[in-house]
Design a protein that fits this description.
This protein has 309 residues and is an alpha/beta fold. It is built from eleven helices and 13 strands. It has three domains: 97 residues, Orthogonal Bundle (Arc Repressor Mutant, subunit A); 97 residues, Periplasmic binding protein-like II (D-Maltodextrin-Binding Protein, domain 2, 3-Layer(aba) Sandwich), CATH 3.40.190.10; 107 residues, 3-Layer(aba) Sandwich (D-Maltodextrin-Binding Protein, domain 2). The longest helix has 28 residues.
Amino acid sequence: MVRLVPIGDGYDGWVQFQQLQYFVAVAETRHFTRAADLVHVAQPSLSQQIKALERELGADLFLRARGNITLTDAGEALLPLARRILADADTARHEVQELVQLRSGRVRLGATPSLCTGLLPDVLRAFHDRYPGIRLLVEEGGSHDLVRELARGALDLALVVLPLPSPSPALTTVELLREDLVVVSSPEAPVPGGPGRRTVRIADLEGERLVMFRHGYDLRELTVAACRAEGFEPDLAVEGGEMDAVLGFVRAGLGVAVVPRMVATRSGRGLRVTPLARPGLYRTIALAHRSDVAPPRAARELQRMLLER
């Protein structure tokens, strides 16, 4: 492939990248045959390309005398420019190779706070161990907020809760997992529904004081909808918190909460964890990205690790 490059201000034409390589080789060896060996090309071909470069530039670059090759004024002027172009191209090649080989770059990942607590730590640790040069930028938010950030190009991938808000931008989603929800309470508090219960029904939460997430939080909407489906409005002891705050309020005995099983398992210290009776509650987690733009290579690798986890 012939690559053309500009060689500086004041010159309107373009020269072949290969010609600059040959020119620098001759300038550094001061010998056409040794230069040809250096760039792995036949000497006649190198000489022809140098002559073509001189015709393109409209000036001789070398004074040729038997056994003595020197640069003309034009050659002296071109040499630092040619070296800089070749050096810049080499730098660009290395940077692109590092990115392609996942030695550098970044992944911008969005996730709900509960997934940042439950699912992501182990996966991100494995990804970082394999690709330590890739920067991981994680943004926490509700699914509605993450969908908006995906649409405006601020994220490469997002872990969202299905179904997505409607109407939503053109996104591609892949279902990742279905996660059971459980009831967490203080060990000192009575088990909802009565002592000795191994499972809790949603109906058992009627009359219980609930610690509730903030508005716009997927788990809030799911829990409130489940309570209303059983014919009662949940009694909220405290509301408005993120995941860590909700768990802290439950530990303090302010009420019970419905949280994902992974979060309860990872953060269960100081909590009683009780499964929900069948059919229970679950949420569907999906991995989403824009349909019109393929995620970068590093993001695709993280996507693969999440799907294969």
